[in-house]
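quick one: zinc ion bound model?
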Amino acid sequence: MTQALSPAVAIARDLIRCPSVTPAEGGALAFLERLLGEAGFTVSRVTFSDTDTPDVENLFATIGSGAPHFVFAGHTDVVPAGAESDWQHDPFGGEIRDGVLYGRGAVDMKGGIASFAAAALAFIAERGKAFGGTISFLITGDEEGPAVNGTSKLLAWAKEQGYVFDACIVGEPTNPAALGDAIKIGRRGYLSGIVTVEGTQGHAAYPQLADNPIPGLLALMSALDALVLDTGNERFEPSNLEIVNLHVGNPAFNVIPARAEGRFNIRFNDEWTLDALKARLHETLATAARPGLRYSLDFRRDAGESFLTRDDALITALANAVEAVTGRRPDLTTNGGTSDARYIKSYCPVVEFGLVGQTMHKVDECTPVADLDQLAAVYRRFLDSYFAG
Ligand SMILES: [Zn+2]
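yep, here:
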């Protein structure tokens, strides 16, 4: 059965058919290069390298001139399909069944890219290149991977080329249940740490000849668990510390171990900076430790500050477009995990709005084709109002 597909649906299907499992390009960027190039965009393909991570291809496409400069950010790489036998639909087939498009990346986030591409192409077709500003695509193949050779380097590259961005939408799936539920206007920060207590190994029957690190570790971890960091605020949930591991590695019953380790992860709001949080944690342990306890607190390098976007014009323009198309006034949220918005926030105000996230990273990832068309309509309305003059 052949049926005419809308531009957003056709682009999403074609992108899903590119097997761009991170870090593979899979033909997805080549497809976008062709699509956007034919519409008059200037397209650059940029590959970044670093030690101990795979080389990754990225794409930057731009049209128009001068300010305001709006940039849409996204990633074409996808997580692996897992066991393909668990799927009812070919993960890279782009199959449409009963009004639903199936495949890895349908919502995270080839669908979001397709909807924005459809919106931008329609906008350019109507307004031409002299629409009073610039529209760019910042597309990485390294969001689901280590994220070393992706958006952070592409932003620095664009800056070197002289590009200055005024506003950004990241097309990640932000809606919990229905299109129009939520716009993300910030993200919590994250920090992981390791508490190590040193003791002296010995025979469990002769504790006076040993120094058991476990009671000391329990006291420290209990103090961390009892810590109330804050009560949240109007934009953020309360900050939270979770103990994620206690590790002694002692298989014997008659041995007092030499060392014990506890690990924790914190998701924190904008009441904290990383430095202030680290200082509070050191202080908490110092208070809880018995005199003479030998312990250390170390933090993982991979950590991020929280941020909140305060550009009311950007947020209102997008919320109005969402409401006009979907009939829903979106919640402005800051929950969930991290995204590449954590890098973009240092360059320009950034918000996130995309498809419904329910099936992301799951088998039979899918989106109703109607959502792709609605999302394209939201982005188009946003572009119309952003470039209204
Ligand atoms: Zn994603």
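The chain is about 30% helix and 25% strand.
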